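Sanity check. The docking grid for magnesium ion depends on where the pocket ends up, so I'm generating a full predicted complex first rather than guessing from homology. Inputs follow.
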Amino acid sequence: MNKIGFEIGVDLGTVNTLVYVKGRGIVYNEPSIVAFDRQTNKIIALGRRASEMLGKEHVKIRVVKPLEGGVIADFDATKAILATVISKLKDSNVDIKNSTMLICCPSEMTTTERKALKQLGNELKIKDVFVEQEVKAGAIGAGIDIFSPRGSLIVDIGGGSSDIGILSLGDLVLWDSVRVAGKHFDKAIAKYVKYKYGMVIGENTAEKIKINLGTLSKDNTDKEYQFGGLSMRTSLPGKMSIKQSEVRMILLDAFDAITTKVLRLLQETPPEIAADIFEDGMVVNGGGALIGGVQEYFETNTGLKVRISNHPLSSIAEGTKYLLKNRGNYLVKVVD
Ligand code: ADP
Ligand code: MG
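Predicted complex below; grid placement will be based on this.
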């Protein structure tokens, strides 16, 4: 008897990788990081454990972020992540060969890169692999009925890039992307701390500052956050603190670049779709949606109603559920 396969949806994010499996839900949700032993090239750690090693490794360890910059920079490492996740999906009634895998990719990914992604799935022994734009999956996961004849606007502020999509009838009508997102915010914070206070900090520390203090709205308390790094003055380890208002200023600067892109795309929008978007507003997805005051910020700066996705970090993986069912067929709306 022929065994059935799994239905697997993959969100290969620059910062986080999520894997959804039909009947099991999200089975993997960890940072997109792999640590290898330099000599044997064997995996030492994956995900969260590898992330903790970042910036603290010695010569025998190589820590890789295979999806840095929004494109797949290291296919072997990406494959290693997925192979490990799949190897854990044991079920004697299932043959991995007969599975279907949907891999979500950034909108700007070229045909060649998409082909390579498909091949990556095939190399994992899965015959049926297809690739879809992640903005689409994210919109479905965020609760937008993308299959209806109604235009919608979604902005996904991820790690490597902010992706903007205008959808109607189940597919993207217009899209754009800007390399200003989570990683950029972290880098801007590290740069500020270096030039303003003469302290060099690592990327994990910069991210902690962002997560602890990051907000776009004015707060009278102006709390502070203490962190450690290497003082440029003494060339020795040291500690200092940064104020929320300083982080806010850095973030506002970056968000203005995202707003500019959103407004530019809106200007090109076909009028009927523009009318729908004016009625329904826009949805914000991705880790950047968790920054305080994002809703008010975009409302003020775009003049639209704004809704933050209920689960900004997992909407894409959730959305794969529906795309797996109908293989992205724009005419079929599936009820779970
Ligand atoms: P990607 O899809 O590129 O992997 P995600 O949508 O998973 O990105 O978002 C990851 C980014 O979100 C990271 O840069 C992370 O620092 C940021 N992030 C996560 N939680 C928060 C938070 N509470 N506040 C601000 N930023 C956050
Ligand atoms: Mg993402």
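Relevant for the grid: The first strand starts at residue 7 and ends at 12.
Also worth noting: The chain has a mean pLDDT of 92.
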